[in-house]
Predict the 3D structure of the following.
Amino acid sequence: MSSPAAPWLLAPRAFRFWLTNYRRTWRGSIYSSIASPVLYLGAMGLGLGTLVDQHGTARLGGVSYLAFLAPGLLAATAMQTAMGEATYPVLASVKWLKTYQAAAATPLRPADLLRGHLLFTAMRLLMNCAIFLAVMTAFGAARSLWVLATIPVCLLTGLAFAAPIEAFAITRSKDSSFAMLYRFFLIPLFLFSGTFFPVSQLPGWIRPVAYATPLWHGVVLCRSLSLGTPDLGGALVHVSYLAALALAGLLIGQRTYRRRLYV
Amino acid sequence: MSEYPFGNAGGPGYCLLVPNTEVLIRARNLTKRFGEFTAVDGIGFELHRGEAFGFLGPNGAGKSCTMRMIGCVSPPTSGELSILGMDSVAQGQAIRARLGVVPQEDTLDVELTVRENLLIYGRYFGLSRDVISQRTSRLLDFVQLTDRAGDQVEPLSGGMKRRLTIARSLINEPEILLLDEPTTGLDPQARHVVWDRLFRLKQQGVTLVLTTHYMDEAEQLCDRLVVMDGGRIAAEGSPRELIERYSTPEVLELRFHPAEHDQAVEKLAAELATTGLATTGLATTGLESTGPAERAEILADRLLLYVADGDAALAAVRARGMDPLTSLVRRSTLEDVFLRLTGRRLED
């Protein structure tokens, strides 16, 4: 007989659902996880990087453009992975396939479904970032053993996006808001959060906006670790900011999930 | 084919034949509002172990909403709802562990296989892989899907998906099975298979709660039912009791030539209105003694006369010089009760 389970045992049950689904598609996802960093690091890191390096790299902190760019892209990969998981799959579960409603009829509660999906998102973040890190190392773009610490940083950066976006996604009835989210949020962040060039290159008045974006914090952390120049005080601020976002997303998401599934 | 999906089956009539007064679900003054709109308006009912209980009603009557409250995924706005002796809000999780739910729309994961759907669902209930695998083979046998166990769900027919949903809802061996319009959208063969399976479950002692707007389904499956309309309960009883209370023993259906339909209907209606059935000659049917059912229903293509003796009424109609194209004398059904209680308006 099914007996009342301890609350922490329930999210893993929802996680297993995503895992079972992922078993059908994991190969394809691995290929794109490898191809993406190879293409970006090849074209921009090596191709464009050669041009950049000829003009001096003082403003990049004296390192090659490839070494500057790679950790930024690593953090951006975490953001993209999180966005991918937190948008369409959530709406599909609640609207198109209604697998969330099916699960809500069992002992699982809406909060368990959110946490289960965040667990799965965490797994995808670890996978994608580990692959990126391996490619980046193969390109010779990692400068320090500290680079290994980028993995938990990417996990945190990803969850700082995934949790709030998931809290938002569950409230949607159409996927058109996701297109807006990508166009006016993800892409600007990708381009202007210090991924491709230092934020100091931006006009002074717009820099605070960049500092407020979670991606910038992830980029700065990853870059300092990859270049072997971590700074504890700064890191604490970045980590706290990202953790606060992830936690806020979780708390709000538990409410929005409940409101959507318990009508 | 396995007749009984549960391992601990006691055989046919295991629980059914023993009258059981244990109350499994009790609702008092149960109300659900969405803003200004009242979907369920202070209803009350009691449901006993082992019975098949139906919520009948037109679309928008509040049936599905009531089912969602019983399924503990929709907190009542006010009123009391206890299920298996527990409070539906405070102990929803523990209640859901002992319920099976077949929702109105299929919520299967169509990208997974038949077997995987049961595996995932069993996991939600915290069942071990071994237990799930044992139950899966038994349940797939029960719903006649054994040969599709390894197939993806997407291409299965509507009837197969419904049966899989039923199998899935049984993975935790629930004490109460909630079925929201279990056969809507299925072809007649598929419906009969589903009915047969549900009947077997009932025989095994599973308490069935279902909503439907199919009268034949209600008559086939339900020991007791309530007719809902506009969020309220309009009537309650066994199908037979309801027919006795709200309809006459027989119904005379008259169909006239389309050109004469309006005229004939008018003539009959006028006579009924001015003189009443007693002086139209229909009094010979002995209607007076049967109470409230002295009625005529005028449909677009037919005229229904609710009478005690259909043949006598037909003779009386003919005696008045009216010659229907076709006539049919039949027993009253739940449909007559339903139409009387909920009216003929179209709802969506």
Remarks:
- The longest helix of chain A spans residues 232-261.
- The radius of gyration of chain A is 19 Å.
- The mean pLDDT of chain A is 93.
- Chain A has eleven helices and no strands.
